[in-house]
Specification:
mainly beta; 6-stranded antiparallel β-barrel; 3 helices; about 15% helix
């Protein structure tokens, strides 16, 4: 971590933005389970994704350090093949103030992931209208 900070300083990067992985603005369907809460998933959509993290909105606040299980579906226009589902565990590292719509921004660090073979019935259909194809 110290090496990253030295490189950032030498490169003139602002201290407030410590990301080292490229973020991709992608609106992907996501099901989020919060550790210690109901086993039901909260359905949402990502705002951006990187190899090490994800940002999305929920309709409730969580505290930094909270463990999450997130399942994402990458649609065919992103994978250039069939839709791909990935489940990962993550830890909340930042919680943004609620928007006027009462949605809370959640930034989470991906800790572990796995590829899933098939989509559960209805999951992809529930979000298909929300998939945004490149323009």
């Amino acid at each position: 971590m110290l090496l990253v900070r030295v490189i950032q300083k030498d490169m003139g990067l602002e201290a407030q933005d410590r990301r080292i992985m490229r973020r991709f603005d992608m609106r992907l369907p996501a099901a989020v389970r919060i550790a210690g809460w109901s086993p039901d998933a909260f359905l949402t959509e990502t705002q951006n994704v990187s190899a090490r993290g994800v940002f999305f909105y929920l309709d409730r606040a969580v505290v930094p350090g909270t463990r999450l299980e997130v399942t994402l579906t990458f649609p065919p226009h992103v994978t250039l093949t069939d839709a791909v589902r990935i489940r990962f565990t993550a830890r909340v590292i930042r919680v943004d103030d609620p928007l006027p719509s009462a949605r809370v921004g959640i930034a989470a660090l991906i800790e572990d992931y796995e590829f899933l073979n098939s989509s559960p019935a209805g999951f992809a259909d529930a979000f298909e209208a929300g998939w945004k194809s490149p323009q």
